[in-house]
Amino acid sequence: MGRHYGMDWLRIGAFGLLIFYHIGLVFVHWGYHAKTAHPMEWVAVPLQAINAWRLPLLFVVSGYASRAIFAGDRRPADFAWGRTKRLIVPLLFGVIVIVPSQPWIELSTQHGYTGSFLHFWLSDYFRFGKLSGISLPSWQHLWFVGYLWFYTMVLAAGIAITPSAVRAWIADMADRALAGPLILIIPMALLIANWSYAFPGSAETHGFFDDWQVHRVYFPMVLFGFLLRGGDRVWRAIRRWWWVGGILAVASYAFIADVEIRHMGSPVPTRAIWYWFGVARAVQCWGAIVALIGIADRWLNHDHAVRPMLNEAVFPFYMIHQTIIVVVAGALLAFGLSPIIEFGIILAATVAGCWAFYRIGREIGWLRPLIGLRARKAGHTPAHSPRSA
């Protein structure tokens, strides 16, 4: 299929929404790298509206983008090498340069660490061990990039060792299996089964080797995105059933919000409630993903002059946004501001900082690959309409 602009807009929106979500984590009672002095338990209610599907959706749109890239790099080895350059180089740069201020803020504001940032970076960050329970060095929010790279390598290896006829048969069977209302039924059943198998579950570790509960969710999301790029029956099913997915997602969120409100700031009191809370999250997750893809297909599948630039800016924004949030939130603790003023300052600083990081970085040739942008070809002059990632 040709370029689907709706999926581009969905990718842009999903990563943009992540910025607001991470700012919200500063103000909720959940754990985070930087916290306001006056956390508000009610913030958990709006955050739960996107908590269940925000990361799975990112992996779906990333899988879709990977299929589009593979269409241009037909050989699996070329595809794998291209993905490695685009993901591992900025990941390493991020771990060494962008991320370190985040654990420093967390240690300084929550664990009594008294060393300067320079001392921390030179003496403690690269210890390859733990400091006050925090593993160092860390990839923090960039775990997503590492996971995506690994899933992409597994996918490339699978393509390389599987004959084209077998791949076509697998794709056709998957396309048939998700036709009609099965686009909702089968993925929801699998998500519920994964939750039931792992119950009562455990928190995401982002440590890769001990994160199998989420690998069983995120890797299939990448595979679904890859299938979606060429799945005619899947697209027809989404166009027919997206509104049902939206209703199921809203109904499931209503239950989740009710539990949050009834037990505000305290653990869920019974195993039964916790189990059905997880089931509701599974239904909300997939229902929202199908609904959002359907909405993007129906109303957003058209181009705009700013789309190429926004599409290119997504990766640099993602790389820097959490560091800005954490550093600014940590710095604001000393001023005793009200939460609403803190929120406004953090939001303005994050948007401005992300924009400056992207606009400056895209003009510096050697910096482009480090922040997730394509390297410029020799003799190329900066373009006003950048090529999308």
Report on the architecture of this protein:
- By secondary structure, the protein is mostly helical.
- It is 69% helix and 2% strand.
- The chain has a two-stranded antiparallel sheet with strand order 1-2.
- A hairpin with a 2-residue loop joins β1 and β2.
- α1 packs antiparallel against α3 and α2 packs antiparallel against α11.
- The protein is globular and about 60 Å long.
- The two termini are 18 Å apart.
- The C terminus is likely disordered.
What string gives the helices and strands in order?
A: HHHHHHEEHHHHHHHH
* Helix/strand/pairing category: mainly alpha
User: Largest sheet, if any?
Assistant: 2 strands, antiparallel
Poorly predicted segments: 382-389
Which word captures the global form?
A: globular
Supply database-style keywords.
two-stranded antiparallel ribbon; single chain; 14 helices; mainly alpha; globular; 389 residues
Provide a quick synopsis of the model.
It contains 14 helices and two strands. The chain is mostly helical. β1 and β2 form a beta hairpin.
How are the elements arranged and paired?
Elements: H1 5-27, H2 44-51, H3 54-72, H4 76-98, H5 101-110, H6 117-124, E1 129-131, E2 134-136, H7 143-161, H8 164-177, H9 182-198, H10 212-228, H11 232-262, H12 271-299, H13 307-332, H14 339-363
Antiparallel strand pairs: 1-2
Helix pairs in contact: 1-3, 1-12, 1-13, 1-14, 2-11, 3-10, 4-7, 5-13, 9-12, 11-12, 13-14
